[in-house]
């Protein structure tokens, strides 16, 4: 693999950064230690500008190239996420999480370390004509940190023309890349409802309006949205993941709460799913003589890769991994990603890098594969150098 030789030289150093971050995971916007380390290293690398506090706790570094325009050309943004997950790590290694109940179970420690490695290289060589902006984002795991950074004026403040993101992909070959134009990751919405019936003794259901029965009907009715209201060639997943009733086996509860998630890849499907859930809830209560209070919240939008930038990213990835190791039309993933907000604000592309066999993301035995660090960091570096060639 033609990784950047200079980046390969400090592979061990980047690995040390990654493992330190892994041992000290932080959640959501409370990434003060991580952001502080990122800020300190970017300053030590000699970035032209380092700005903390973007989108609450995000950090942005600016690196100007030494091309003929002295960095006055286009500006390319590169984004990594910094936050961990509220998961208890169960695998033992020397850099195991020291924060109980918190774990880098999605590889954001690796994403941050790889982008730091690329930033070190770019600040050292500056072999490009334009500006590279390295973006370190908090709160990807449910906190919409990407949206917060966009709303904080990041794109305008730093003059970002295009923006690129990357995520590791377990069980894809080490160092391979996967991408697609258009929707690559799903929109993720959530619903929660309170079903109010009439509780009583489990031996006398005729005297009750059983909200648990209604909840069971709703679970199945929601699946009919997928099987009977959605075009079979479209993607929609509705998962009811929480149902809470009484605390005893002999009590029919008066109230049941239930909640779940809705994932889609097309705006029309997203709109239809919300409309049908609302209609089903409104009518199901009347059928059974109960009240159903529904709260439906839209989350991250679809992550949509722009066609031109995706083709460009494919070319850079093929340079790093070889054409046979780049899937340019991967199947969409129904997980969600708040890089979607950055792609709504600017053209760009989100790519996956294979990290080999092992537990999937969000698993308590997951661990980022340090072997792929030079490939990922080289992709970032060559993306900038290729997009902004020095004259």
Account of the 3D structure:
- There is one protein chain.
- With 391 residues, the protein is of the alpha/beta class.
- Helices cover 35% and strands 24% of the residues.
- Strands 1-2-4-3-5-16-6-15 form an eight-stranded mixed sheet, with helices on both faces. A four-stranded antiparallel sheet has the order 10-12-8-13, with helices on one face.
- 49% of the residues are buried.
- The model has no long low-confidence stretch (mean pLDDT 95).
The radius of gyration is 24 Å
Widest sheet: strand ordering: 1-2-4-3-5-16-6-15
The percent of residues in helical segments reads: 25-40%
Could you tell me the strand content as a percent range? 15-25%
Largest sheet: 8 strands, mixed
Number of strands: 16
Structural class, by secondary structure, is alpha/beta
End-to-end distance, in Å? 26 Å
Form type: elongated
Q: Count of helices?
A: 11
Reading the helices and strands in chain order gives: HHHEEEHEHHEEEEEHEEEHEEHEHEH
Which features would summarize this protein structure in a list?
4-stranded antiparallel beta sheet, 24% strand, 8-stranded mixed beta sheet, 391 residues
